[in-house]
Write a structure and sequence with these properties.
GO terms for molecular function: ATP binding; phosphoribosylformylglycinamidine synthase activity. With 76 residues, the chain is of the alpha+beta class. It contains two helices and three strands, in the order E-H-E-H-E. It has helices at residues 16-27, 52-63, and strands spanning 2-9, 39-45, 69-75. Strands 2-1-3 form a three-stranded antiparallel sheet, with helices on one face.
């Protein structure tokens, strides 16, 4: 079984990497980009029967800093 975890900074948290990408896109001539938020995707190969609750616990303890980041989980 696979799980994909998407981790993003919460709204209101400064995203310097996203701002650098927005600035670079403008410098390359791409107009109309008003904001960029950058995050990460973590793919997990899990044993069959691993619950979504277990993946959530992984996120809470290690994969996401829940003070400043939010996450979503996709199971496949």
């Amino acid at each position: 079984m696979k799980a994909r975890v998407h981790v993003m900074l919460k709204n209101g948290v400064l995203d310097p990497q996203g701002e650098a990408v927005r600035h670079a896109l403008g410098a390359l001539g791409f107009e109309g980009v008003e904001g960029v938020r950058q995050g990460k995707v973590i793919e997990l190969d899990l044993a069959d029967g691993t619950s979504e609750e277990t993946v959530k616990e992984m996120c809470e303890k290690l994969l996401a800093n829940t003070v400043i980041e939010s996450y979503t989980i996709e199971l496949a």
